[in-house]
Design goal:
The complex is a heterodimer. Chain A is of the alpha/beta class. Chain A has three domains: 78 residues; 198 residues, no CATH class; 176 residues, 3-Layer(aba) Sandwich (Rossmann fold), CATH 3.40.50. Helices cover 60% and strands 8% of the residues of chain A. Chain A contains 18 helices and eight strands. In chain A, the strands form two sheets. Chain A has a six-stranded parallel β-sheet. In chain A, strands 1-2 form a two-stranded antiparallel ribbon. Chain B folds into two domains: 34 residues; 67 residues. In chain B, α2 packs antiparallel against α4 and α3 runs antiparallel to α4. The N and C termini of chain B lie far apart (105 Å). Classes of the chains: A alpha/beta, B mainly alpha. At the A-B interface, α1, α2, α3, α4 and α8 of A face α1, α2, α3 and α4 of B.
Amino acid sequence: MATIATLAYLAASVLFILALRGLSHPETSRQGNQYGMIGMGIAILATILNSGMDFGGFVLIIAGIAIGGSIGTIIASRIQMTSLPQLVAAFHSLVGMAAVFVAAAALYSPQSFGIGVPGNIKGASLLEMSLGLAIGAITFSGSVIAFLKLDGRMSGAPILFANQHKLNAGLGILLLLLVILFVATGSPTLFWMIAILAFGLGFLLIIPIGGADMPVVVSMLNSYSGWAAAGIGFTIGNLLLIVTGALVGASGAILSYIMCKGMNRSIINVLLGGFGSDSGAAAAGGGGERAPVKAGSPEDAAFIMKNAGKIIVVPGYGMAVAQAQQVVREMADLLKKEGVEVSYAIHPVAGRMPGHMNVLLAEANVPYDEVHELEEINPEFAEADVAYVIGANDVTNPAAKTDKSSAIYGMPILDVERAKTVFFVKRGMASGYAGVENELFFRPNTMMLFGDAKKVTQEIVQALQR
Amino acid sequence: MSTQTELANRAAELSARAAELADFARRAAEATAPVAQVVEPFLLMLTIFLMACFVGYYVVWSVTPALHSPLMGVTNAISSVIVVGGILAAAAAESDAARLFGVLAVTLASVNIFGGFLVTRRMLSMFQKKKG
């Protein structure tokens, strides 16, 4: 029976790998997701059949799956796509908490996992247990903070105080000491002390990180949830958990790396936080004698776009906030009827999670082959008549290429300034997240369209219909 | 005659040596056996863990950037395979505390399993090719 369970776990591991593999192309991705579901089903069935549980245990487990499953189903079918980042953060917190619970179960009933008897658990297992526990607890509280920040229930501004990093380092060392003591004694009191300390540390690690750095944080917590699962896998000697944890951990780590590269910042720089506090904003204005900003009306914009040959739309977080994706697609449809070629340019860190803009555009029925990544589309701006920048700012700022003193220097940007005309849909003249003023606003070929992203685009749509 | 006795003596000596060696080997094996039992499963797990990290590394780099959000959805759903640990804990009747923690873990992980796969399916169903 145990052999069958092991084979089932092997099958589930392979199916999970195929689920990730499917995401290499939108065509194969749906199939991949199904492989993932089948793998999970096999894993759960094999575990239930192999556990030799009594009827009471069976009822409890089915009740747990039914309650959790219904909640998950309801949430996932009602959630708006613009709220996706906070949903993912909330889900990460659940994995973290589940890891804490399984670690606790292994502490109180080690014989269920064959790692000893209560009060006398193998040292190696205690070490693995405390790692799974600590990473799980950090994932939980860190994800809760990320959720609150993304959901707007907590200010996205970094929360900073004196000696913050020293405090965190001190707590980290204390955590390490507690782990060593726990491995030596196996005391439940120490177990719960590790849990509480790790919860606190997760909270403190995420509060100094600003709202727009959340793509990195969400990816990193994704990675942590994987490492926590792997740690629990080592504790209870379960190969499926180890394999899946490693897959998820690697995936989150790669996403964090891609996001950091998209901002030309190191992961350490992001994690230390404090970026995006508005301290730099005043200093950046410097120039003084600038050409006045040219503001236009939606009608002007509609006229110019109607007569353009090629338009590139550059969406940013502002489009998500204003829920403007649907109107943008309507605008593109009308323009296409006029014979204009429309495509979309996505910066790797646009939005609040990796791939956020792609999902929103897909939701608005924008075909995915019109949506392009930075390297792919950057050469095309030179041939474009219009760049329509909606709710994006820092990712278009040429200061990243020219101004060595700028906070965003070295960040890869979308070369919108090469287009014949640039429209910026913006609420006002405020700087972007990095607190750096965008000199593009003052260029002669730039026209500002002040107002809410959705309203402005709607007015363009009306003007195009006339 | 003398050569025959010598040969017999040599043979006896050799067999005694062999017996000694066998005994030594047995004692050595006995001494290392507990170590092998502790180390081997861990090494096996570590090997599999590292291999899985490499598989994850190469598979995830092949994911198209447009699908990075669904990637997070799927990885989130499959990391809930931690439900397996919860089931094993809930199945054990030895400790009520362990059983409670197990059921809680199963419930939380189930939110994730159903929610994660479903929200990913919703996302993926929206990605469409240009018509015509």
